[in-house]
Structures are given as C-alpha cells and as structure tokens.
Write a structure and sequence with these properties.
The complex is a heterodimer of chains A (153) and B (145). Chain A has 153 residues and is an alpha+beta fold. Chain A is built from 5 helices and 7 strands, in the order αβαβββαβαββα. Chain B has one domain. Classes of the chains: A alpha+beta (153), B mainly alpha (145).
C-alpha cells in the first residue's frame, strides 16, 4: 500500500469514526432519556417559592391525589409537546394537578433541584414530596404508571 | 425575538441535515486539504449568522419551502423559534472557534467541524438539540463560577 493511500484511508476511518460516535450518542440518548427514577427521601416542593401561575392565578395547593411539575425554559424545543400531553393527562385523570415552571430566569431553582436539562418532570404526592423524576421527554406510560402508584385513576 | 412566528420543525431539521453534510466534508478535508476545509467552516459561520439575522431569507429555508415542503403533509405541530435561534448561536460559536482558532492552530478547524457535525447530525436524525439540552448546564456553571 502506498503511503498516500494509507493516509487517505486513515482520514476516511476518522470520518467514519465521527459518524459512528454521533450515531451512538443519538441512540444512547434515545434509549436513556425519559426513563426516570424514583426519588427517596422527602424533598418537598414549596409552591410559594415557585410562584407558578395557572390560568392567571397563583397555584397555592397541590393536587388531591398527585401533582405533576414540568420544568421548562424558553429554549426548550421539546417542552411544548410535553406540556400538551401533560395537559391532556390532567384533563383525563381526577385529582391530578399539572403545573409548569419556566426556569429560564430561575437558575437558582435549577441548582436547588439539581435540574440539568429541560424538559424535567417531577411527580409529587399529595403532600408535595417528590416521588419520581424524569429528565428528558417522558417515555409513554411512565408517568401514568407512577400516578397509578399514587392512586390516581 | 418574536414569539408569534412559529415554524414547521421539519424545516430546521432539513437545514441541520445539510449542515451535517457540509461539516462532515469540512472535517474530512481538514485532514487532507486544509484551506478548502477552512473555507467551508467560514461558509458555515456565514450561514449560522444569516439564520440569526434574517431566518426568513435563509437559503435552507428557501430550499425547504421550494423542494421539500410541497412533498410533505401539513405539520402536526409548529415550533417556537427561540430554541432554534439558540441552537444557531451555539453553531456559530463552534464555527467561530474554527474560523478564529484556525488562524493560529490548524487542528482547531477539525475540532470545530467535528463539533458542528455532531450537533447538526443529532438534530437532523435524532431530533436532539444539543445546545438546548446543555443550556441549563451552561447557565448553572456560569452561576456557580
């Protein structure tokens, strides 16, 4: 093999490696994001600190059976779709409250709850304790399964 | 920043596919023909800047409207343009790394092209906006420092 040819070969190999790296990153992201995990301990959400408005009024009470909190930012491309599906879920399920916190200008909240990506979704019990959290777009049925554990029908 | 001009999300993903092809060529050439690779990275920088200043006149948007959109069904949902704008700013930052850094150190052109490729590829084929994903992390590191 001539030296020039092997040089071209190695640049092609590097380019293919780059494509593989990007593809594996994408597959890994698709696989892992949105799965979520249970949260033990009793970290609570304090509604007065979140200052969430819903239909123009400040939210002061949690949902009777459960509350779902969506953390979003202005730059979150996938949040509107999650918002729509959670709104539909709230409409279907009794005792469920859905609230959204835009943390674009509340980086302190992101640090406090250790949120490093949007969308991030928390499932709270009636006392406002975080029971489950999901980073990324929730996989189908994940939230429903968690809500059923809390007794939401 | 306007909030009313929502866009068909497939347009930017079409653009990202072209960007990923261009940046892959630039990456390949940066190992063989550096001046041509540098020219492509400069062109990518111009395209990113263009989409920030005047997205409605951007050639990607024109090509999408003329060639692709007529063959697609109506979009299921429209997207807020702010995340897209942020993604273009991240792309521009990487392009500037190659444009400015490439003057002093040739390998930076390859690094810049590789980052642009990964970000554009993930956006085009997996719908993952890397810049948007990292936004909170970047801001939080900024606060902690």
């Amino acid at each position: 093999m001539s030296p020039t040819l092997s040089y071209v070969d190695s640049t092609i190999a590097l380019s293919i490696a780059l494509i593989l790296l990007a593809t594996l990153t994408g597959i890994g992201y698709r696989f892992f994001q949105g799965r979520g995990h249970s949260v033990s301990g009793a970290q609570c959400i304090e509604l007065e600190k979140l200052n969430i408005l819903k239909n123009g009024e400040e939210v002061t009470e949690f949902g009777k059976e459960a509350t779902v909190v969506l953390f979003s930012t202005e730059y979150c491309g996938q949040c509107p779709a999650v918002r729509r599906s959670l709104s539909k879920l709230e409409y279907r399920k009794g005792g469920l409250l859905f609230i959204e916190a835009d943390i674009t200008h509340r980086i302190d909240l992101a640090a406090h709850f250790n949120i490093s990506q949007t969308p991030t979704v928390f499932v709270l019990n009636p006392a406002g304790e975080i029971r489950f959290r999901i980073g990324g777009v929730p996989k189908p049925r994940t939230i429903e399964t968690e809500l059923e554990k809390l007794g939401v029908k | 920043m306007t909030t009313s001009k929502h866009v068909d999300p497939r347009g930017p993903r079409f653009g990202a596919a072209i960007t990923s092809a261009l940046s892959l060529i630039a990456f390949y050439l940066s190992l063989t023909n550096q001046s041509l690779a540098y020219a492509i990275v400069v062109a990518l920088g111009v395209l990113f800047t263009w989409s920030l200043i005047s997205p409605s006149t951007h050639p990607y948007g024109w090509a999408f409207a003329k060639l692709v959109r007529p063959n697609l069904a109506a979009p299921k949902e429209l997207e807020d343009p702010r995340p897209l704008k942020f993604a273009q700013q991240v792309g521009l930052a990487f392009a500037l790394l190659g444009i400015v850094g490439g003057i002093f150190s040739a390998p930076l052109v390859a690094v810049s092209a590789a980052f642009i490729f990964i970000a554009a590829f993930l956006n085009a084929f997996f719908g993952l906006c890397l810049g948007c994903q990292l936004y909170l992390l970047i801001r939080r590191v900024g606060i902690i420092r």
